[in-house]
Structures are given as structure tokens and as C-alpha cells.
Write a structure and sequence with these properties.
The protein is built from 15 helices and 22 strands. Strands 1, 2, 14, 15, 18, 19, 20, 21 and 22 form a nine-stranded mixed sheet that branches. An eight-stranded mixed sheet has the order 5-4-12-7-8-9-11-6. Strands 10-3-13 form a three-stranded antiparallel sheet, with no helix packed on it. It is globular and about 80 Å long. The two termini are 16 Å apart.
């Protein structure tokens, strides 16, 4: 599942040059074992141990290891006999990810004084060409949010400097709404936000890393004009640029001319969705599709190994405190009070140094569940009336890029997709993972946001099960702070008015940790969830009508609102 607002240092990225279709996939460490048509815990265990193996190196989108992972998926659906539904008659849909980083020639100076990147200023990449500013005058634009700030017309052609208030109830310095400022002051030569001295070191490290993004994914990508340079500077930059502290200046005060340029280089970062179809049995309905999906990527690996056992012991202690607290929140003081006795852990077995984020649950569980469901349908004597389209999306962890690209450039008519069933982290949900967790615990999100009928149908299918699930709808509440509705691939379908259902067994202590490994998956539970989604897909595919959309559709190009 994509982290909300995270600043995650992904560590060393392994570049993959050239188009994805031209890549030679790395060999699998272990040959895939033959699985059976039925959905079974043993088959899922076989698949998860292979897919989340260290040899996959965390499956980061834009790396050769994600290409290796998708090669495995494609080989499996080909073996099953599913129809290819990617580009040019194949199973892969190439997704144009690019890796962008600051050009080494970038420089900035004022009145002969040079500002060093990453020390004196931190540039942010808007994802497209930036405007030349050499010789532009610095102008104080005021305090962010004040009514007295410069207007967009007054900022035109200037390099504006913006101050930001601080305080306990104000957002962190790194969370200034950059998109809103670029939109408001898009005619400026540059924008400098004076918050750099309050950035945590990991934020600067994150910005310094090459950033992988979807080419043309910027909200302003349809506009071909360049954008202002956007940088963070320290709060004492006023003395250099204006000869006085920012808080002593009047809005509109003119400062020195800024010299230099800030540019970003861009290289291809090949990535791909895997898309396959099982044709429906009804000639009148096989032109409609039930989409079943998961994301094929994770967050890669880090350069610095950590102690697996002490990390897990610490996160286990945090989780117990969260579950015991009335608000399920743990304070910083409580976190700092946790002490892990690594020596006692290492007496049980030797220290395990680990740097690979295996992503067994996130989303090895969802990926392998979709494979199991696909194989079950392929081996079934009776096929559903509508067709099924299976999509393993890339780049979910980087920003839902694969699902965004697929729904913007679908390989079947978009309006032929009647519903989308998404699985992300469906292999856990024990009592020590979630409050109220257990064998029947399952979170449902988005099931009635577009279609009351889809939500009702899912409830009906559950009632017929020998062991029904107990649904947790709390994370589907409007305005819930976790924003799960906006954080996985289903939303990219929902934004086009396609009814969705998001299935997850929830967050846990190993989320986005090196400890998210196959030995911690509940394979019986994973099989039950997989079979449940199979049954729901069957019910939707065999309806005598399309799932009714009776709720307002969102703006497909607007921001997600839960």
C-alpha cells in the first residue's frame, strides 16, 4: 500500500536502461513449482516465498528487479492459457516512468555569494522544464497564508521569497503545498520557501535521491509552458537576499538579483503492468469485464543493513502499546522509552542483518492472490459470463502510477469495465496485527462509494460462506485520517466512475519494514480471502445487468477525497 505523505529513503536504485520491452529479465532464483487449479494455502505459500524472495531485491518499480518480478507473473498467466492484453499482443503494458535528478551544473548565487545545493538551498523538481531566472530580482512575497501576500500578477518575472509561520499546531516544514504555490505563482521566475532549517535530515536525503515518476503525471502536465524554479532556503536567507531578516521586511520589498540555473536531468526507468484476460462464456456479455488487480512493486532495498530481529522486536513493542492505548496512539516519549535487548535476541540465534524490503504482504500477498484466482478461473469447467481482466499494476508505491497509466490508457474500452476488485496486503490481520483481528477479520473500503449494489452483493456473498468474514468498515469512513480509499490502485478506477471494492487485512508492525517476510503471512487466511474475491468476481460477472452506479462520480483529474 502506498504510504500517505511519507518521506521514505528508498536507498540504492538499480538503473535499467532502454525500453522495458527490450530488457532481458534476470533469472529466477528458484524455478516456480507447479501449482494446482484450486486456491490453496500451499500454492499461495509457494508463490509468496518465490515472489518475496531476496533475489527479487524488493521489486522497486523502475528497476531491473521489478522487471524480473513481472516476468514471473507473465510466465504464469501464459502457462494458464490466459489471453495477453498488454501492448502489441503481449502481456506487458509498458509504463513510461522516468528518473529525475538535479543536474550537476545547477548553481545559484546572489551578489557574488554562492549558495550550495543541499546545504544552502534544496531544489524541488516540478516534473517538467523550469524557467530561466538568471538576473531575476528577489522580492519578498510575505508570510504563507496571509491575505497581504503578493498577487500572482505582482510576482510575475520575480524570484519570490515566502516566509512560513511555525508552531505546534502547524504542519511540518516539508509539507507546504508546493502544487498550490506553483499554480498560484506560475508566472514567477522562481519560488523560494524559507523553511529549510526546520527540515529533518531524512527529508533532505529523500529530495537529494533521484525521484522516479510517471512521465507527464504532473497536474500541470497538459500545459507545455515551463514552471518557476522551486527551492527551499533557510529562514536567515533574508540577510543574504535583502540585507535584513525576513520578518522585518514589508511585502513587496526588493532584494538582490539571483544568478545561475536549476535544471533536472531525466532518464528512462522502465516499468510495466501485466495484463491478461479470461474470455467470458456469454457472447452477449463477454465484451464487458470485471477487473481484478494488485500491485506488483514494493520499495526496493537500502544500502545499510539493519538488525532484523531488533527492528521487529521494537515494532512489536510499539504495536502492543498502540493496542493497549484508548486512542491507539503512541507518544514519542513512549517510543523513546522502548529498549530492545539485542543480546538476548542474538542468544536465540545469530544476528540477521537485512537490507531488503521483501514486501511479502505488501503486496506479495495481493499479487499471488490474483495469480491463484486467475488459475482457478482458468481451470474451472464453467467460465463466468463476462470476461475477467487481471491487471498487476506497477509503481503503486511511487504514486499509483501503473493504475493511473492503465486507466488513462486502458487496453480494453474503459467503459467496458463494470467493476474493479483490488487486493493490497491481504495476508495478515491477526489479533496482534489489528484490534479485533483474527481468522475472519477483513477490512472493506469503497464498496458503496459508487455503487450501493456492489456493496450489498459483497455482503450477500459473504453470508453464504461456511466461515463468513467479519468486515471492518471503519477505514472507509469519510475523512478518515489514514485515507486508505486514496492510497491504493482501486482509486484510479473509481475516479472514472468504475465501482470498486478494496480488500485488505490491514496495517501491521512489518509495514514497509525489512521484516515484511513470507514467514509472517497467514496462508490459510490468504486462501480464504482469495476464494472470497473469486466468489465475488463470479457473482459480478454473472449478473444479468451491469453493477448499478447510483452515487456521484468524482472528477477523474481532481484530487482524491475520502
Amino acid at each position: 500500500m502506498q504510504a500517505a505523505g511519507r518521506l521514505l529513503v528508498l536507498g540504492a536504485l538499480v538503473a535499467a536502461a532502454g525500453p522495458a520491452s527490450a530488457q532481458t529479465a534476470l533469472p529466477l532464483k528458484h524455478a516456480p513449482a507447479r501449482t494446482q487449479a484450486a486456491i490453496t494455502p500451499s500454492d499461495l505459500m509457494t508463490r509468496v516465498y518465490l515472489y518475496a524472495d531476496d533475489s527479487m531485491m524488493g521489486r522497486l518499480a523502475g528497476s531491473e528487479y521489478n522487471l524480473k518480478a513481472t516476468a514471473y507473473i507473465a510466465s504464469e498467466v501464459k502457462r494458464m492459457g490466459l489471453q495477453p492484453a498488454g501492448d502489441s499482443g503481449g502481456y506487458f503494458q509498458n509504463v513510461p516512468l522516468v528518473k529525475r535528478q538535479l543536474d550537476a551544473s545547477s548553481a545559484l548565487s546572489a551578489d557574488g555569494t554562492t549558495l550550495k545545493p543541499w546545504d544552502d538551498f534544496v531544489p524541488r523538481d516540478p516534473g517538467r522544464a523550469t524557467r530561466a531566472f538568471d538576473g531575476s530580482q528577489a522580492v519578498y512575497a510575505g508570510v504563507l497564508g496571509d491575505s497581504t501576500m503578493l498577487t500572482s500578477e505582482q510576482a510575475a518575472g520575480k524570484f519570490i521569497v515566502i516566509a512560513v509561520r511555525t508552531g505546534p499546531n502547524l504542519p511540518p516544514a516539508a509539507q507546504v503545498n508546493r502544487g498550490a504555490l506553483l499554480t498560484r505563482f506560475r508566472s514567477a521566475a522562481g519560488i523560494a520557501v524559507a523553511t529549510l532549517d526546520r527540515f529533518p535530515p531524512q527529508a533532505i536525503t529523500f529530495f537529494r535521491q533521484p525521484q522516479t515518476t510517471l512521465s507527464g503525471a504532473s497536474p500541470l502536465a497538459n500545459d507545455t509552458t515551463s514552471l518557476p524554479v522551486y527551492i527551499y532556503v533557510k529562514s536567515d536567507a533574508g540577510r543574504l537576499l535583502f540585507g535584513a531578516p525576513l520578518d522585518s521586511l514589508r511585502v513587496g520589498a526588493a532584494g538582490k538579483a539571483l544568478r545561475g540555473s536549476v535544471q533536472f536531468t531525466e532518464t528512462a526507468a522502465p516499468a510495466r503492468n501485466v495484463v491478461a484476460i479470461l474470455a467470458g462464456s456469454d457472447a452477449a456479455l463477454r465484451g464487458e469485464y470485471v477487473a481484478i488487480g494488485a500491485h506488483n512493486d514494493h520499495i526496493g532495498f537500502d544500502q545499510t543493513p539493519v538488525d532484523h530481529d531488533s527492528i521487529r522486536a521494537y515494532n512489536d513493542a510499539v504495536r502492543h502499546l498502540e493496542q493497549a492505548a484508548p486512542t491507539h496512539q503512541v507518544s514519542m516519549d513512549q517510543r523513546q522509552a522502548i529498549r530492545v535487548n539485542a543480546d538476548s535476541l542474538h542468544r536465540l540465534h545469530a544476528a540477521r542483518r537485512d537490507s531488503i524490503f521483501n514486501g511479502a504482504d505488501d503486496d506479495g500477498s495481493g499479487t499471488t492472490a490474483v495469480l491463484e484466482i486467475a488459475e482457478a478461473f482458468a481451470g474451472a469447467r464453467l467460465k463466468p459470463k463476462r470476461s475477467l481482466i487481471f491487471v498487476w499494476h506497477t509503481g503503486e508505491e511511487l504514486g499509483l502510477f501503473g493504475s493511473q497509466y492503465f486507466t488513462d490508457h486502458p487496453t480494453v474500452p474503459r467503459d467496458s469495465i463494470v467493476a474493479q476488485l483490488n487486493m493490497d496486503m491481504v495476508g495478515r490481520g491477526r489479533a496482534d496485527d489489528e484490534v479485533g483481528g483474527g481468522p475472519g477479520y477483513l477490512q472493506l473500503i469503497g464498496t458503496r462509494r459508487l455503487s450501493t449494489e456492489l456493496g450489498d452483493l459483497i455482503e450477500s456473498v459473504n453470508k453464504t460462506r461456511k466461515q463468513p468474514f467479519t468486515f471492518d468498515y471503519q477505514y472507509d469512513a469519510s475523512g478518515h485520517p489514514e485515507q486508505y480509499y486514496c492510497r491504493s490502485d482501486h482509486y484510479m478506477y473509481a475516479r472514472y466512475g468504475i465501482p470498486i471494492a478494496f480488500f485488505t487485512t490491514g496495517n501491521h508492525r512489518d509495514y514497509h519494514q525489512v521484516t515484511d517476510e513470507p514467514q509472517y503471512i497467514d496462508y490459510d487466511k490468504l486462501a480464504h480471502v482469495s476464494q472470497f474475491v473469486y466468489d465475488i468476481a463470479t457473482a459480478v460477472a454473472n449478473l444479468d445487468h451491469r453493477v448499478v452506479v447510483d452515487k456521484p462520480k468524482p472528477d477523474p483529474h481532481g484530487n482524491c477525497v475520502q
